[in-house]
Amino acid sequence: MDIYKHPTFDMACEQFDLVADLLQMPQSERERVKFPKRSLTVAVPVRMDSGEVKVFPGYRVQHHLSLGPTKGGMRFHPDVALGEVAALAMWMSWKCALTGLPYGGAKGGVACNPRTMSINEVERVTRRFTQEIISFIGPQIDIPAPDVGTNEQTMAWMMDTYSNQFGHAVSGVVTGKPVDLGGSLGRREATGRGVAFLVGRALDTLGIASSGCTAVVQGYGNVGSVAAQKMSQNGIKVIAVSDADGGLYNPKGIDFEKLDAYIAKHRTVLGFTEAEPISNEEILLLKCDVLAPCALERQITAHNAAKIQCRVLAEGANGPTTPDADVILNERGDVFIIPDILCNAGGVVVSYFEWVQDLQSFFWSEGEVMDKLYRILETAFTQTLNMANQRKLPMRMAALSLGIKRVADAKRQRGLFP
Ligand code: GLU
Questions:
Q1: At what angle do helices 366-391 and 395-414 cross, to 10 degrees?
Q2: Is pLDDT at 1 greater than 90 in this prediction?
């Protein structure tokens, strides 16, 4: 599958191969479970505000179709590439299987930089991209959601573009929509709240009290900002945060009310005066109890894994730790990893609730949503921890093997067509 060649895809394959060995998966099954089922690459021509027409590459990868429609986010970022999207789609499959959702994994995106584009340009990219992939998505086919660089507004435009094509409102085609359009209460906060909940479970497991702990959060986007604020409400002092421009460090703790007011004005954490500036690389090396990388892939690598100084590594991002960093961390044995497919699963779990509510046109209270979310995360955490303890495995291997085994079992039970 050379078309997916990319360091992030290599990383996802390396993880898969380790688990396939562990599960003693027959060779004949491996490629079938590992490689994405199908992918679509499109050219997205967009008229920019200047009048010039730019063509952006867009992608959607659906990893497996064995358990239901596919599910996963849409990323708008300059580095989006087919192989990266394919890896993220694989991880979505294992994440959905680990949490028991009736989905295969998917991911998509457009290689563009929404930070340098006007809101009208972003809207035109979103609508034209949706049009280009319209026959590839749908409530029973593949259901997009927000990811890096996209948000509720992006999902509203996708839903509107899709609905216009079909002549009636189709709310179930995307999740992470505004609540007024059929979005779920609690969806926006779900990933970050899930991270904070699982951090609490990890600290309990280690016998460490939350109060008195410190945390560092790389990435102050939808996931990192909610995770940081929720951890702080839970008594953990958050001493550093960052965004794509750089980071902030204050050993006395970050004042989130003031920081959010600053970001609302300046659209960046840079220049906030009530903390010291710190780089995105340095932030990962700060001494803390909880380190939460909530930005992009491949941040903790062979170069810095020996130097990170935390007790719990809470992976709010997808794929933040490379396999060679895993080897170093496992050898060290002093870092409890909450692996990405578990740690950030809160988002897709509430996306699933949103899809169910849309299909039934029957909406739940925020309390119901959160209660059901925490039950699912608790079960997935306990199953992963039990598996890790019983089989003497790192938490990542335990979580991946639970997810991958469920997908392999489904494929085996359905058999091979024709
Ligand atoms: N983009 C999110 C993730 O990586 C959410 C996906 C979804 O809600 O479908 O898990």
A1: 100
A2: no
